[in-house]
Amino acid sequence: MLKLFRKKSEKEKLQEKYRKLMEEAYRLSHSNRKAADEKTAEAESILKKIEALD
Questions:
Q1: DSSP letter string, 8-34
Q2: For the residues 40-50, what does the mean pLDDT come to?
């Protein structure tokens, strides 16, 4: 319940965005490989930002 009112940290926001991009890239990989590669590249840049926060 306490987590309901707590604001997300920058790292948590980036992790959620990374997860969503990877899921979308996976779905696209079945039909459009180029778009999937673009989403994966975008997700990797977010991963680098997450690692920089640590």
A1: PPHHHHHHHHHHHHHHHHHHHHTT-HH
A2: 96
> Is residue 48 exposed (0-12), middle (13-18) or buried (19+ Cβ within 10 Å)?
exposed
pLDDT number for residue 39: 97
Residue recorded with tokens 């926060």: 53
- Which among 12, 14, 6, 39 has a CA at the least distance from the CA of 25? 39
In the chain, the amino acid numbered 19 is R
Token representation of residue 9: 């940290």
pTM here?
A: 0.84
